[in-house]
Amino acid sequence: MKSVLFFVIASLITFGACAQQDKSKRPSPPAKVSETNKNGVVISIDYSQPSLKGRTIGKDVEPMAGKVWRTGANEATVFEISKDARVEGKPLAAGKYGLFSIANGDDWIIIFSKTWNQWGLSYKEADDVLRVHVKAGKAPAKAEKMTFGINKDGKVTLVWGDIQVDFNVE
Asked: How many CA atoms does the CB half-sphere of 31 hold within 13 Å?
């Protein structure tokens, strides 16, 4: 009888711990997008989606002007490519990268860091593998949740609020 009671209690504790690990219940839920571009490169982005919730980007919520942002929420956003590729014309080896960015108005820096498996913003510039400069534009429709998209041509699009940032992976 004691062993049955122990099993039931242990099961309940384990179930409770697993329920707390359900990332879909977070205020910034997980999302993933993947596409194979015309050159056969599989591009994947694994991220968490912050929401505006009435807040203003750059004032109440990131990205803040001139500061490094993990380009998402919770764990660092993971950018992965299956083959060596070029991002905005610059070489990037196949692998996983932490995706960070710096917004300065319409000028954005997209950063690929060798440190991809981390929580929050433990960014170190020394871990940068590649930085590319791109222009931000106005999104066609306001997005409450930050969202990434990838098309067959290898264009990666980040939309949040009324901001849209694109970069190309060839």
From this structure: 17
On the question of pLDDT at 129 being above 90, the answer is yes
CB proximity list for 109: less than 8 A, separation 6 or greater: 101, 102, 131, 132, 133, 134
pLDDT over 90 at 94, yes or no: yes
Instruction: Give residue for tokens 């009435």.
Output: 54
Phi, psi of 34 (to 5 degrees): -145, 145
Q: Highest mean pLDDT: which of 13-22, 25-34, 93-102?
A: 93-102
Residue range 137-155: mean pLDDT, rounded? 96
Whole-prediction pTM: 0.83
Distance (Å, whole) CA 40 – CA 129:
22
Backbone angles phi, psi at 44, to 5 degrees: -130, 140
Work out the pLDDT band at 27, boundaries 50, 70, 90. Answer: low
Q: Of residues 130 and 10, which shows the higher confidence score?
A: 130
Give the C-alpha separation, 28 to 124, whole Å: 24
> How does DSSP assign 53-92, residue by residue?
TT--BTTTBSPPTTSEE-SSSSBPEEEEESS-EEETTEEE
Residue in this structure with the two tokens 């919520």, named with its chain if needed: 61
Q: How far is CA 131 from CA 6, 19, 141, 168, in A?
A: 54, 38, 28, 13
